Amino acid sequence: MLRIGILGLSDGNGHPYSWSSIFNGYDPKAMADCPFPSIPRYLAERRFPDDAIPGAQVTHVWTQDPAVSHHIARACLIPEIAYEPTDMLGRVDAVLLARDDAENHRAFAAPFLRHGLPIYVDKPLAITDADRRALLDLQVREGQVFTCSALRYAAELQISPEEHQAIGRITLVQGVTPKSWERYAVHLIDPVIAQLGVQGEIVWSAVVPRGSTRLVRLEWASGLRASFDAVGDRCAAPISLRFIGEKGFAEKTFEDSFMCFRRALETFVAGVRAGGSLHDDTIDAAVVKVIEAGLVQGAGVEP
Predict the structure, then answer these.
(1) pLDDT value of position 301
(2) Using an 8 Å Cβ cutoff, are 26 and 48 in contact?
(3) What is the Cβ-side half-sphere exposure of residue 124, based on CA atoms within 13 angstroms?
(4) Judging by DSSP bridges, how do beta strands 225-230 and 170-177 pair with one another?
(5) Torsion, Cα of 188, 190, 195, 198 (10° steps)
């Protein structure tokens, strides 16, 4: 049985509850008090232990608030509570860094990377390429770090071969996500690059920030253009993508949190068992470069 430790909690991010349950199952009574109501709703639609990931268990949890740690442990059937993150060293085989505050990822990941443990770093890995490289430099062996937007694995955001043939060569991708650019734009960028491939360097970009909204337009060296909009906390928009081709278009809307989380976690576990991450680091680098381009203040100019 693979022993996994989970580290959380950051504002608005319920992954310590959802990810732990996908491994361990959950206690419905305790989970009813989860501060993220969507989690007990979609867990109730699943059957446990059948829908749990086999062969692995979240055995330890740490958050900055011991009361929160105790509640996560009760709700997600986690046997041990850590009172410092490093209490897990020597007691777990892998770590889930279930915080989406990228500015803190390096500090939290460092002791585990130096100890040689594989770690799943929640999206986004970093919001600048310099920070991404600095975190990866802490690895004592290649493939310790796994990261992605779990929406990379969302079947409902995938273009089928038949759809791709029908819409022709894709020339423009449009994406909309709620919440902030820094934390949620990755949910648009990652599924696009994972599906369509790395498109080369960004040759131009334009950024329009207004309050919590950030509208980003860009073109890669391949000629593919993208429009990625993070619409903040005041707009009730689902995460959606539109792939526009020379003959038509395909619209995709994100719906199933449980299954994309499960597929991402399964991929991480498979990499742990194989001795290294099973995904392509070049995708992560390309994703972070788009996030960084979107942090530029003011509008750019298309050549």
Answers:
(1) 45
(2) yes
(3) 29
(4) parallel
(5) 120
Q: Give mean pLDDT, residues 104-114.
A: 97
Contact status, residue 176 vs residue 231, Cβ threshold 8 Å: yes
Structure tokens at 229: 């909009």
Residue 30 has what pLDDT? 97
Average pLDDT of the chain is 94
CB contact set of 146 (below 8 Å; sequence gap of 6+): 118, 119, 120, 121, 267, 268, 271, 277, 278, 279
State which amino acid sits at residue 194: A
What is residue 233's predicted lDDT score, i.e. its pLDDT? 82
Q: Which residue has the tokens 């949890």?
A: 61
Q: What are the structural domains of the chain? A: 2-151+258-279 (3.40.50.720), 152-255+289-293 (3.30.360.10)
Quick one: which of 125, 154, 143 has its CA closest to 240? 154
Q: Are the beta carbons of 152 and 190 closer than 8 angstroms?
A: yes
For 291-294, which contacts have Cβ atoms below 8 Å and span 24 or more sequence positions?
291/124, 291/127, 291/128, 291/181, 291/182, 291/185, 291/186, 291/189, 292/127, 292/128, 292/129, 293/202, 293/205, 293/207, 293/216, 293/218, 294/181, 294/185, 294/205, 294/207, 294/214, 294/216, 294/228, 294/230
Cβ partners under 8 Å of residue 173, min gap 6: 192, 196, 224, 225, 226, 227, 241, 242, 243, 244
- When pLDDT is averaged across residues 133-137 and rounded to a whole number, the result is 97
Q: Which residue has the tokens 């992605």?
A: 148
The token duo for 274 is 């194989």
What would the pLDDT profile of 199-246 be if each residue is shown by its tens digit? 999 999 999 988 889 999 999 999 999 999 999 987 778 999 999 999
CA 173 to CA 156: how far, in whole Å?
A: 16
How large is the average pLDDT for residues 11-38? 95
Whether the predicted pLDDT of 98 surpasses 60: yes
Read off the pLDDT of residues 167-178 as tens digits, 9 standing for 90 and up: 999 999 999 999
Residue type (1 letter), 210: R
**Which residue bears the tokens 């268990």?**
57
